[in-house]
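fwd from M.: "can u put these together and see what the complex looks like"

so here's what she sent:
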Amino acid sequence: MIERSPVFNIFTYAAMTLGLLVVLVPFWIVIVAGSQSLQEVSRVPIVLWPSSHLWENIQAAWARADLGPKMINSLIVASGVTFGKIVLASISAFAIVFFDFRARMVCFWMIFITLMLPLEVRIVPTYAIAANALLPFQVVLDTLGITGLVQTLSSVRIGLEWNLLNSYTGLILPLVATATGTFLYRQFFMTIPDELIEASKMDGASPVRFFFDVLLPLSRTNMLALATIMFVSSWNQYLWPLLITTDRTNYGTVVMQLKALIPTQNGTPDWNVTMAGALIIMLPPLLIVALMQRWFVRGLITRDK
Amino acid sequence: MTSIRLLSAASTIAVLSIAAAAPAMAQTKFEFWYGLSGDLSERVQEMCKGFNESQADYEIVCVSQENYDNTLQNTIAAYRANKQPTVTQIFDAGTLDLMLSGAYMPIRELMSSNGYEIDWNNYLSGIASYFSTSTGEMLSLPFNNSTAVIYYNTDALAKVGFEGTPKTWEEVETVARAMKDAGYECPIAFDPSGAWQWFEQFSAIHNQPIATKGNGFGGLDAEMVVSQGKFVDQLTWIKKMYDEGIIVHKSKDAGETANDAFVNGKCQITSSSIADHGTFGKQAAEGVHWTNAMLPMWSDTERTNSLVGGASLWTLKGKSEEEYKGAAAFFNYLAQPEQAQTWSTITGYVPVTMAGFEAMKANGFYNEAPYKGRELAVESLTFTPPTENSRGIRLGNYASIRQEMVKTMQDVLFNNAPVLETLQAFDAKGNEILRRFEQTYKGAQLP
Amino acid sequence: MERRAFYRNPVLPWLLIGPQLLLVLVFFYWPTSQALYWAFTLEQPWGGGNSWVWLDNFIAIFRDREYWATVARSAFYAICTTGLSMAVALFLACFVDRSLKGTKLFQSVYVWPYAIAAPAAGVAFRFIFAPQSGIIGSINQIWPGIWDPSTNGVHALAMVIICHAWLGIGYNFIFFLAALQMIPRSITEAGAMDGARPVRRMFDLQLPLIAPTVFFLLIMNLISSFTDSFGLIDTMTEGGPVGSTEVMVYKIYFDGFKGLDYSGAAAQSIVLMFLVIALTFVQFKWVEKRVHYN
């Protein structure tokens, strides 16, 4: 572009390479250490070149942190969040943007405000209701006197109970309950020209038809972006799964297992196994980001701005 | 649409879990959560398997929660969500938390209502006093109990020409200095997170109070008094040794724990639970010879008994009759002399009953390696009748206070914080925790 | 931007928005109000009951010197991670913006840290910074004890900050690049014609033009420093040594779940929520203003 001077170009490349180093060195060290034997990884200074033990280290890490079932759990949770989010976000944004109903703006703001407080910030309260997510409804029933009424009429006491501890729903739903996707879809739907709706109305198509035939195909890019963002962020969740699972064996996720991989338990500083484990745990979201970059970058920018 | 499906799936799960809690057909399943990991966890699993094979009515499912802290935390979470295990293992520091929780079924009641006779007076005095109420009733079943001892590398002792094992801290200092001069880089391994052995046990055997009211046994309004006792000098001494490189910091943050440094022969002296006796025997690197002794005393002091450590088993409320029957059967199984002996043999935990200890002594169990040395733990636990200061610690949320002590020791060692002021701050912080606990359980009486 | 063409239907919109509203109510509003309630009571850990204590919990945390130390530490942590991460990302974005041949390759790699879970990065950086292992270990061999995050609080905090900043590079880079690329070429070219050197142009032209992005990222980074830090700290230092890496979120977790003081933790949560809301509010105000200028 502007300065075409070769010196400045070289400088640019040098700077970019430096940046590449900053970004890649941690990855490189993970790969290098993950591929070395215990002797090699314990050597000071370490040889910064991969060795041949990657596969056996991965196997060791896989066995030690029981990564098989944990991978499946992580996949279930990440896909669940992604799927739930896309569906809920698209339909609720559809309602907000295209329908005229009285509480429209109230609804929008109610959902939108949730963007402000990430789950980590409200961890104590969310944890409090995890024991029984239906508690609010019970309270409503109790205050309205319905519980008492039903009890006197039928001698059945309504006791709503739905606890989220050790369940996929507990791992998934609180993450779905935010405005990220709704907002993204709203921004996108706002750009749909009015003429399209008019035309669709003219054809006598119902709102549902319009949603499926026009909006969904148009929002494919949007969907991919949202899917990437949600998959990555839910795969990487740490604090919430830590609190909501007391049954790690059956409901633990891979990211929770990272701490179990740090060599403290058995005394040998086998960082090679730790690093191999970290490598496979960070790989799925990394692959998705690398492959979906084009879409997700666009999505990220529209979401957050 | 999907959300509706999700919700209905979720309610199916909720219904299922209710169904699961209902009495099962032939065999009653019940859960037991414990806080041990690694080698000890495998031992627990073997024991569970043994119980399941010994009878056909109950099946125990034993779940490791990795460590004591997690077990307490997760038990609470589960209890609040009505998904608690029938039996849970709670460490010494959580005893009062459980006692006031109202969430347990007293062990005596459980056993007698299910027709088991237990001789409650047979427990080692130190153990009984730690876990029983003011009226002497035990609410939980002592399970894995230990006390702290000091471990020495015998080759290092021989190299500096010391015969036997040091009995006083003065001797320990002399020996450690000699080791340093003889070229050992790490004479004494010290992990600040070992507040239990370095602080609590020190206080107990030197008959020093940690808090007023007999360490809290006299009421919830006890106050911390650590900065007024001998521990001030002890911590000053530890700091001095640390600065001279005679005591060396070893912890998992530093990459190697004190115990690992000891079994690998890098450090020559360490203090730890007798429960590690078994593990040390197995893990000691080739050529590492070691022995253990009762914790040293300062020479001008009289030894009192040491504190029991470890955990006890609590039965939680809200389970079915059948599950309680199962739990009682399990406890009864544990109390069988041969079971108790196997458990003490494969770990290093002390036999919890006097009868058990006598039987093992009579068998000559303690006379030979690799078990020789373990009797010292019982000797230490029963050295004197428990005093006000050595019968136990009955302080609310004590796990947090222990954590504050870890920070305090780190602060003194790493940041050169002045010993007395830091311990005074520790007392103040401890009092805050105690007052908060008192307020949370306002009006509650110590059982 | 209001839409004119609306569907009207008394039921359908409610069916569409219902599930989302329900989730938000159950998992956001209800718990948040619950937290408020807890913050004014003393909750027994085992759920045996609670007692109303008015502002005692808040008074207790505000009188606690350690709490203020944590707040100050969090602020320091937030400023350092934000500054470091944004500086690196902006630096890279400026060069990538020159769109030389092969830039695409660099560009796609710079995004990678975005994909990494904080605890995974924590574990990796813990190894990189471990005083006795391969990389820092060799420096420690030459000057023993020069680096030891297990006993030196400053080292520990530095280690966590560097790791957090690294994690943020990808995200910040994406936004900076997008913002830079939106600056019309004609403006930069005009600047170049006037003889402004690239560095000058950066400060006089581009930076003011991307100020909204800078501001936006500032807020997002500050907020993320409160949220993402948990996974890092838990895997790297667990708040130690001597609490030198204990930030607000970690203290909430520790006091609440390890220390079994749910009420104190709830009160701390409320304070943190207000802080985050205040930050977001500042951002909204700014965005509004910017819209007006446009």
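replying to her w this: The longest strand of chain B covers residues 309-316.
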